[in-house]
Write a structure and sequence with these properties.
This protein is of the alpha+beta class and 166 residues long. It has one domain: Peptide deformylase (Peptide Deformylase). Helix content is 31%, strand content 30%. The strands form three sheets. It has a five-stranded antiparallel sheet, sandwiched between helices. About 5% of the residues have low confidence. The structure holds zinc ion. Zinc ion binds next to helix 2.
């Protein structure tokens, strides 16, 4: 990602709007089918966005449930670093540094994972991952796609995930 143009600014505003409509706490470009290293978040009514993020994580961990807009309605205990420092660019091509703990740190990790093709299911304990795979197979959105003969794709769902979807 090296072109900081109007198209990129439109992508950031599309992502933000889609996240707010869901509603979710964060959203990454690959979740809406755009293969760029861009994501947005909104924690405590403070929206933000980051391009080309690189994360530095604390060794201290946090516990808590996490959900994903690409897996509507599913929430699992997901271990994450307690604190994250993210370096990247804003949509104007200026370097930015975002430092967060707890939920903001969780969102930064969750969204950066999306850019690398990693979903939160991959971060679960073995037991929770097994449960998640069962839940996914039984979920309406998975089965509707199967019946339609479609490959499962990540897409944003209109279902609320208690504000924790990302
Ligand atoms: Zn997600």
């Amino acid at each position: 990602m090296s072109v900081f143009d109007k198209e990129l600014r439109n992508l950031v505003s599309d992502l933000t709007e889609t996240m707010h409509d869901a509603p979710g706490a964060g959203l990454a470009a690959p979740q809406i089918g755009v293969s760029l290293r861009v994501f947005v978040w909104d924690i405590d009514d403070e929206p933000g966005h980051l391009i080309n993020p690189v994360l530095d994580l604390s060794s201290e961990l946090q516990e808590g449930e996490e959900g994903c807009l690409s897996f509507p309605g599913l929430l699992y205990e997901t271990p994450r670093a307690f604190r994250a420092v993210a370096k990247g660019m804003n949509m104007h091509g200026e370097p930015v540094l975002i430092e967060g703990s707890e939920l903001l740190a969780r969102v930064l990790q969750h969204e950066t994972d999306h850019l690398d093709g990693i979903v939160f299911i991959d971060r679960l304990s073995a037991e929770n991952r097994k449960q998640a795979m069962r839940d996914i197979r039984e979920s309406d959105w998975f089965n509707q796609n199967q019946v339609a003969g479609k490959q499962i794709q990540f897409k944003v769902s209109p279902h609320s995930t208690n504000g924790l979807g990302m």
